[in-house]
Amino acid sequence: MTSTWIWLILAIMAAGIEVFTSDLTFLLVAVGALTAAASSALGAPTALQVAVGAAVSLAGLIFVRPVALRHLRRAPHDSRTGVDALLGATGRALTEVTVDGGRMSLRGETWSARLDADITRVPVGPGSALTVTRIDGATALVHPIDD
Predict the structure, then answer these.
(1) Which among 4, 7, 50, 64 is most buried, taking Cβ atoms within 10 Å?
(2) What are the chain's domains?
């Protein structure tokens, strides 16, 4: 078996491992093995094949992988979840809401609410439209909005 075939088999194995890890590490090792296979096919000595494969793999791991992972793992702008998704959400007061407390309907759920004292201290009545400015534990800090 020629060294070209050995490099190709190593590239296929690394690509197969990458399917299970999705980390881009083994994919870049596979690219290095493919370049080593190409240098082998061109008649390069074994030491040069290893050097070319290692250099390409290392360069990919150092320069390509961090940039690629940053782009692949970037969350869409509208993908806020949990408490972060509630910031700016609107709801309706179910009871009078004051700086001390109250209840509101928020995205189909009943929440404890209180006015955000940094914005207003004027109590709002039931049915008033509210916007969430912060979440403090299980309480939404809100301010009234015009209907």
Answers:
(1) 7
(2) 3-72 (no CATH), 82-144 (2.40.50.140)
Q: How far is CA 129 from CA 59, 87, 142, 145, in A?
A: 56, 15, 10, 6
- Kindly report the backbone phi and psi dihedral angles of residue 142, in degrees, each rounded to the nearest multiple of 5, phi listed first: -135, 170
**CA 112 – CA 63 distance, rounded (Å):** 49
CA distances from residue 116 to 78, 85, 103 in whole angstroms, order as listed: 25, 18, 14
Q: Answer whether 0.70 is exceeded by the pTM.
A: no
C-alpha–C-alpha distance, residues 117 and 105, integer Å: 20
What letter would DSSP give residue 97?
B
pLDDT tens, position by position, 14-43: 999 999 998 999 999 999 999 999 999 999
